[in-house]
Amino acid sequence: QLQLQESGSGLVKPSQTLSLTCAVSGGSITIGGYSWTWIRQPPGKGLEWIGYIYHSGTTYYNPSLESRVTISIDNPQNQFSLRLTSVTAADTAVYYCAREKWPTAYLDYWGQGILVTVSP
Amino acid sequence: EIVVTQSPATLSVSPGERAILSCRASQSVGTNLAWYQQKPGQAPRLLVYDASTRAAGIPDRFSGSGSGTEFTLTISSLQSEDFAIYYCQQYNNRPPWTFGQGTKVEIK
Questions:
Q1: CB contact, 8 Å: B30 with chain A?
Q2: Nearest to residue A47, comparing CAs of B98, B74, B1, B17?
Q3: pLDDT digits (tens, 9 = 90+) for B42-94
Q4: SS3 content of chain A, % helix, strand, coil (to 5)
Q5: Radius of gyration of chain A from Cα atoms?
Q6: Which candidate, A115, A111, A118, places its Cα nearest to that of A5?
Q7: Among positive and negative, which fits the CA dihedral B78, B82, B84, B85?
Q8: For testing contact with chain B, the best of A47, A101, A102, A104 (most B CBs within 10 A)
């Protein structure tokens, strides 16, 4: 059974960089036919797709965040990561990692999520 | 960017009754649409993809239909564990993929 687990700092100061990692177990991150995705959900609000990375390193980001986002992949460690720079309170959210079916793009496995709060 | 709108925002239903949730896209997405269920404190769970295909392990009381811009998720007989928030997501053509704002199904 595939499992995804987010980790990283739960508290980030404004203007600093948010960094999260998603560890994948029970399956290989290099398997074809899937990409690896970050989604976020502000408290009490809906879901926002942030971007994905394929095991080759190909990425695609939401244009609304593209100038601040980097998603990277570590195939030997079977994990992928999210960096979001210059954070503000508006970036406070639960961040989820998920597996995305490719080239269709439904999300079939999700991590449990990690709350990241942006506060001084 | 394709805008996805769900209705109603809240649906009050008695256990055993049928629930019908709607999702509308601002332009045609073909059948490139998925439905998710989210319970408090949990990650979303995939219910339906490609508009009408149930995901693995999903009970057959959940069914999806529609194409183009109009989609429906029907829960034929609501069980206690079905009270949750439901989101639809479009994944047509190219990113960014977008979600609806959600429909909360609550006990009447």
A1: no
A2: B98
A3: 999 999 999 999 999 999 999 999 999 999 999 999 999 999 999 999 999 88
A4: 0, 50, 45
A5: 13
A6: A111
A7: negative
A8: A47
